[in-house]
């Protein structure tokens, strides 16, 4: 079956995420756009996922728990997990590798932890968009050791796409798929060995994908979606 999805969305916990990117607003917009599944991947944290899961369960939208890591080289890497608990556990590991730099909300934006009623319950004080002290290859290794799957983010877009950050896709790591942006020039490399994901990287509600990108999956479930990303039928 076709699972229409947007697998790279930021909430208001990411300092670059708009204040309207609350759990219920994100899931509500996905519901309006008739998406079957979403992944909310905040920068170096998973602490808004419980509230987003609550909203997703209420509206019948499948939530794939995820994060967007910033590696030591300042390249972005998505990771997805089979449940919120394992993603949060990995998030706590990642937090220990985040430098102790305090966020400046007036400059970078607020980092709001929300509950299921879209109420702020905390402000994260560490700057979440800082680079970790883990390399690109080390991040991939730890994602897999913690039970997740690894997808380099928007590899052909921006300074944080790996092709611009490093100039190449490191061959010593295992990638379960690649996220490729449609607007910039397509990578001048053979990507036929990889599943290609197209996502919005939405920081504003209006940028969440319409019903346009889908994965073929055996059913509407997290396990089936993870398998579809990895090319497993």
Pick out the low-confidence regions: none
Give the averaged pLDDT, no decimals: 95
Spatial extent as radius of gyration: 16 Å
Helical amount among residues, as a percent range? 25-40%
- Count of domain modules: 1
Question: How much strand content do the residues show?
Answer: 15-25%
The H-level CATH homologous superfamily, spelled out, is: Metal-dependent hydrolases
Largest sheet: 7 strands, mixed
**What is the second-level CATH architecture?**
Alpha-Beta Barrel
Structural class: alpha/beta
Categorize the overall geometry: globular
The CATH class, by name, is: Alpha Beta
Distance linking N and C termini? 11 Å
CATH fold name: TIM Barrel
Q: Which structural traits does this protein have?
A:
233 residues, alpha/beta, TIM Barrel, seven-stranded mixed sheet, two-stranded antiparallel sheet, 25% helix, 19% strand
């Amino acid at each position: 079956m076709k699972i229409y999805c947007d697998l790279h969305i930021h909430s208001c916990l990411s300092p670059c995420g708009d204040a309207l990117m609350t759990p219920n607003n994100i899931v509500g917009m996905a519901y309006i756009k008739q998406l079957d599944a979403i992944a909310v991947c905040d920068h170096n944290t998973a602490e808004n996922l419980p509230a987003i899961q609550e909203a997703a369960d209420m509206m019948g939208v499948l939530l794939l728990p995820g994060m967007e890591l910033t590696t030591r080289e300042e390249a972005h890497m998505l990771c997805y997990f089979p449940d919120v608990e394992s993603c949060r556990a990995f998030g706590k590991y990642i937090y220990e590798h985040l430098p102790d730099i305090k966020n400046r909300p007036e400059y970078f934006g607020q980092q709001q932890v929300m509950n299921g009623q879209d109420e702020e319950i905390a402000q994260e004080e560490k700057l979440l968009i800082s680079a970790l002290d883990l390399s690109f290859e080390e991040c991939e290794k730890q994602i897999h050791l913690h039970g997740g799957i690894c997808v380099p983010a928007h590899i052909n877009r921006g300074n944080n796409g790996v092709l611009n950050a490093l100039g190449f896709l490191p061959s010593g790591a295992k990638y379960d798929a690649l996220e490729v942006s449609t607007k910039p020039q397509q990578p001048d490399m053979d990507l036929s060995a990889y599943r290609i994901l197209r996502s919005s990287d939405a920081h504003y509600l209006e940028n969440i994908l319409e019903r346009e990108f889908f994965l073929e999956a055996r059913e509407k479930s997290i396990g089936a979606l993870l398998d579809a990303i990895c090319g497993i039928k």
